[in-house]
Amino acid sequence: MTLPDTASHPAGADHTFQVDLRGLVDLLSHHLYSSPRVYLRELMQNAVDALTARHALEPAAPSDAFGIRLYADGSLVRVEDDGVGLTEADVHTFLATIGRSSKRAERIAEQRADFIGQFGIGLLSCFLVADEIHVVSRSAHGPDAGAVEWRGRGDGSYTIRTLPASARPRPGTTVTLTPRADAGEWTRPERVHALARHFGSLLRHPVTFDDGTGAGVSINPEPAPWARTYPTPGSRARALAAYGEDVFGFTPLDTIDLDLPAVGLKGIACVLPEAVPAGRRHGHRVHVKGMLLSEQAEEILPEWAFFVRCVVDAESLRPTASRESLYEDDTLAAVRDALADRLRAWIARAAASDPDLLARFLQVHHLAVKSLAVHDDEILRMLLPWLPFETTDGHSTLDQFARARRTVLVTSSVEEFRQVAAIASAAGLGVVNGGYTYDRELVHRLPEIKPEVTVADLDPATLTAHLDPVDRETELAAAPYLALARDALAVFDCDVALRTFQPASAPALLIDSREARHERTRSQLAREQEGGLWGDILGALRQEAPRAQLILNQLNPLVRTAVAIDEPELARTSAEALYGQAALLSRRPLRPSESSLINRSFLDLLAHALRKDS
Ligand SMILES: Nc1ncnc2c1ncn2[C@@H]1O[C@H](COP(=O)(O)OP(=O)(O)OP(=O)(O)O)[C@@H](O)[C@H]1O
Question: What is each CA distance from 197 to 44, 345, 478, 522, in whole angstroms?
């Protein structure tokens, strides 16, 4: 084998990557940014960062000393700030180098959290609406720094010029865009004004908008609603609710004030007035330093908090490059924990001192709270007694239900509850329907908060033990009928017994569970497949197949007549009909063999009745 002749390939010359700016802008507009309107957000955010840096440089300056002025007259859009500005060297390094950001430089690493931007690409979003970005800037670092002009074009070229100091008497930066004809939708004066209010209404620096008439109007005339002073707590609550309604379009069931200095966050959580599917996460509005960055951030709250939507203003959350979501870092984890604590505290306060509010909340969100209580011991302790369950006393809270009884029984399916509810309650047993999601698990945890109560699963054996046996004589007299009935129902793996129970109007009770039915189907399949591969596998899985039980009620007049029938065919048919009726009452899906049994016994009984009449 001969190696390639490397000697004929001299060491390769170094080249630099070329960036096709058009391709890059196309990538940003289609994959990173949700709409061209974000250009204004990026410009405003750069201005806010520049003001933050300026205040760091001149800490004695009053908070309203430096501001932002927006201008849009239909032919151009301008954003001007009194921020820290840029020197000529800065312009080369930061404005003209894609991906480089002054906010990531080594020397300010410890201040990183102070800035919103960090990726060095935000400015490119201006190319979504204009072919050229024009920047005039004067640095606040040093009194001799002159003004510098930069023109960057969408084809990747740029020019730089120094200007006389008089061209810009004060430090700061002005970015001017001449919108493309197709970008009018985003750059019309009314639209720029609306977008500025949307992104900047909570900014803490003075921000004005001028539509070309020279009269600048403030876009953030008032502090955030939670930062204003109100004459009474009631008027504060009403104002926060009105703000929530304005932002989210629903009247909150309640508004929770969020003021969490430990994580530098303020805002409100609006409790949804309607139930949402458990687990559905909502987008929250996240402002950073007043600047609206995301309307769809999900990560600031734990999954269980899906009953609220929040507007928050945080000091130091870090948005991703698209600004639509947040960095999963320690700050975000701390914010999430603090918000979760706040929501728990709200629930605890409602449980302790505002039963009306708690009742309204649980009426709407009980499913969500149940899912929460399963995983959260504190919520469980606070709210389990208040949660509604279906019981043999009707809909009731566990607290009420357990007050009168030491033992609470719980079924494992809705179907079991339907089968036994009437009979169990007539027998004095308290049963909770544990068939709905979370319910059985939650009822079993009741003794954790009410140790005097015992909770047990209601199995068929428990119920039959509560049904009174019949006397020996009656038992003996009914024996032939019971034997016939057992024989007729053997195909359903069903035993038959005679007991007395209330209500007397119920002729029979079919005690059966889904697991037992499942087990019987498996055994039956194993028998049918005996010898084959499936038969072996199913046979190996086979357990002692629990049998269903048809319990006939000796108190019921129909049953009394049936057990006395001496015509064997009619006795069989009556047993089948009683089984069919009990199966129908349980409201479980019928097997095909059961449906045909019901049909057959109905027709046989009809034929018998007609024969008798003729
Ligand atoms: N108004 C401004 N005042 C001062 N410097 C600015 C201004 N606008 C942009 N710059 C400088 O230009 C750099 C690049 O801005 P760009 O918006 O592209 O990125 P960024 O803000 O650093 O990060 P991100 O991509 O996360 O927004 C900034 O880091 C900053 O140094």
Answer: 11, 33, 85, 67
Task: Enter the tokens of residue 309.
Answer: 């939507």
Contact yes or no for 218/202 (Cβ under 8 A)? no
Q: What is the mean pLDDT of residues 558-571?
A: 94
CB-defined site of ligand 1, < 6 Å: 42, 46-47, 50, 81, 83-86, 94-95, 101-103, 117-123, 173
**Nearest partner of 204 among 402, 54, 68, judged by Cα:** 68
Tell me the CA–centroid distance for residue 500 and ligand 1, in Å: 85
CA 443 to chain centre: 24
State how far Cα 290 lies from the chain centre: 25
Residue by residue, what is the 3-state secondary structure of 285-334? EEEECCEEEEEEECCCCCCCCCCEEEEEEECCCCECCCCCCECCCHHHHH
**pLDDT score of 69:** 98
Phi, psi for residue 410 in degrees, rounded to 5 = -135, 135
> What is the mean predicted confidence (pLDDT) over 303-314?
91
| ipTM reported for the complex surpasses 0.85 | yes
Predicted local distance difference test score (pLDDT) of residue 562: 95
Three-state SS for 123? helix
Query: What pLDDT sits at residue 94?
Result: 85
Q: Residue 295, CB half-sphere, CA atoms under 13 Å: how many?
A: 7
Q: Which residues of 333-369 are buried (b: 16+ CB within 10 A; e: fewer)?
A: ebbbebbbebbbebbeebbeeeeebbebbbebbbbbb
- Cα–Cα distance measured from residue 269 to residue 173, given in angstroms and rounded to the nearest whole number: 36
The CA distance from 517 to 523, in Å, is 10
Q: Which residues contact 486 (CB under 8 A, 6 or more apart)?
A: 494, 495, 496
Under 8 Å between Cβ of 412 and 434: yes
> Do 553 and 516 form a contact (C-beta atoms < 8 A)?
no
Ligand 1 center from residue 120 Cα (angstroms): 6
Sequence-ordered list of residues with C-beta below 8 angstroms from that of 450, at least 6 positions apart, any chain: 385, 399, 402
Q: Per DSSP, what are the bridge partners of residue 291?
A: 288
Contacts of 393 (CB under 8 A, 6+ apart): 400, 401, 425, 430
pLDDT at position 420, please?
A: 81
pLDDT category of residue 434 using cuts at 50, 70 and 90: very high
Per-residue model confidence as pLDDT tens digits over 182-195 = 999 999 999 999 99
Of 21-25, 468-472, 495-499, 557-561, least confident by mean pLDDT is: 21-25
Q: What is the pLDDT of residue 559?
A: 96
Residue of minimum CA distance from atom 8 in ligand 1: 46
Please list, in sequence order, all residues whose beta carbon lies within 8 angstroms of the beta carbon of residue 493, skipping any fewer than 6 positions away: 520, 545, 547, 548
The per-residue pLDDT for range 26-36, each reduced to its tens digit, is 777 777 887 89
Closest CA to 111 of 174, 54, 171, 173: 54
Residue 108 has pLDDT above 60, yes or no: no
Q: What is the pLDDT of residues 388-431, one digit of tens each?
A: 999 999 999 988 899 888 899 999 888 888 878 878 888 788 99
The answer to whether the beta carbons of residues 339 and 332 sit under 8 Å apart is no
pLDDT band at 1 (very low <50, low <70, confident <90, very high): very low
**Best residue among 44, 66, 94, 177 to mutate for probing ligand 1, ranked by most atoms within 8 Å of CB:** 94
